[in-house]
Amino acid sequence: xxxxCIICVAITGSVAQKSDNPAVPISIxxxxxxxxxxxxxxxxxxHAHVRNDDGSPSSDPEKFAALKEAVETHCPGMIIQLSTGGxxxxxxxxxxxxxxxxxxxxxxxxxxxxxxxxxxNPPDLVDWLASEMLAHDVKPEIEAFDLSHIFHAKLMAxxxxxxxxxxxxxxMGVKNAMPAxxxxxxxYVRSVxxxxxxxxxxxxxxxxPNQIRLNDWAISSGGHARTGLEDNVRLDKSxxxxxxxxxxxxxxxxxxxxxxxxxxxxxxxxxxGLRAVDVA
Length: 280
Description:
Mean pLDDT: 97
Helix content: 25-40%
CATH superfamily: Aldolase class I
CATH topology: TIM Barrel
Oligomer: single chain
């Protein structure tokens, strides 16, 4: 039997607004409702940012705490992954929610260009975020926007800065960063297996119209998949996605196409080596 495919839903992000797609969940209650529908559709990981009331990005630990508590209540067992991304905060404020002990948190281990700015991840901040994740038993998801980020994750693992086998996510299709290129993607996969072992889990995320392309490549290649309104607000060029759950359902259809079972939250926790949770 092929390994079950973990589906991560990135529900909100820091950029997309309701003016882009009214389905983008901004408030905590909207995020919880959208996450629950995605969980029911097959997502086992929720990747979360939080917003201020005006829709601007926030790094407020109290907002993350409220979201985490509500998702734990309404989606028992679902893996909660909080973002330490740089659009919503600067410096160590980006990791202010890590003492909440989410199951996972994103960790960008190097800098790269974004459409209109440099996404800065200086070494001292990366090292501090990694140390906080170790201290609070939070598994990092390595956000690889460039090949060098995969190799730096290996260096950090060798130094003992990352616990267990790193979980690397390839992010492709961001303007001015790594394009969605199949030869590069295949080299990324080979690099993860060479550096971390043939059974090391990995994931892929595509931005905009590249989302469905990266979903297809990842699922057909034995990896795991990320979808959601953070990365893409459309089903196709002329159709807005009605919900995060609709994007999850589309990913589930690809799993069926390639005869990959969709991972339950229990299977996802086992694959990623996460701590067990008690669910009544």
